[in-house]
Design a protein that fits this description.
Order of helices and strands: EEHEEEHEHEHEH
Oligomer: single chain
Number of strands: 8
Structural class: alpha/beta
Low-confidence stretches: none
Length: about 190
């Protein structure tokens, strides 16, 4: 945790997941300010490089990060950093994660395998995280147990199912992360 110029404590949360799972959407839905987005149009240069399976209607991509802010109180500000989802931009995650208190992995049940790298990233660095299952248009053909097993999640990792376009779901995901962080043993 750091402090802002106004003296409020600042908390950084990283939002990760595969290409097209809803990271930019969640940051935008949760942020109290217009989010900073580094979206660019997909071009023919990405053909054969970016896998558009399951997201063939997508025409933009995050090329650096998404950034949003939530003022919890005059004493606490939460900064949301959304990662780029394509493998060619993963090198940036190492810089974006610096100072993060925890993370959110967004997963799409139609393409769960796109979330494996994000889960591995947080687990390998010992960064606590929660999983948000983004059900696009209410579509979810798997049970929570099937999803947890497919993602090989430890039983203690919270998992929520909803639509990241809805601000209340984003709030619930972030609150689940806070609860998860508070339940962790404190290292002395």
């Amino acid at each position: 945790m750091t402090t802002t110029q106004a003296g409020a404590a600042a908390v950084k949360i990283l939002i990760a997941g595969g290409f097209g799972v809803g990271k930019t959407t969640m940051v935008g839905a949760c942020s109290e300010v217009a989010p900073l987005r580094t979206e660019e149009y997909l071009t023919t240069a990405s053909v054969g490089v970016d896998d558009l399976a399951g997201v063939d209607q997508k025409d933009t991509t995050t090329v650096a990060l998404d950034f949003g802010r939530i003022t919890v109180s005059p004493e606490l500000v939460v900064y949301l950093f959304g990662t780029p989802g394509q493998e060619r931009f993963w090198f940036m995650w190492n810089d974006l994660v610096n100072g993060a208190l925890g993370g959110v992995v967004i997963a799409d049940t139609r393409r769960l395998e796109t979330s494996f790298a994000s889960i591995d990233f947080f687990e390998s660095r010992g960064i606590p995280f929660v999983v948000a299952i983004n059900c696009f248009h209410g579509a979810n053909t798997r049970t929570a147990g099937e999803i947890r097993a497919a993602l090989d999640l430890d039983p203690h990792v919270p998992m929520l199912v909803g639509d990241v376009r809805e601000r209340p779901f984003g709030r619930d995901v972030l609150l689940a992360l806070v609860d998860h962080l508070m339940a962790l043993p404190v290292a002395l």
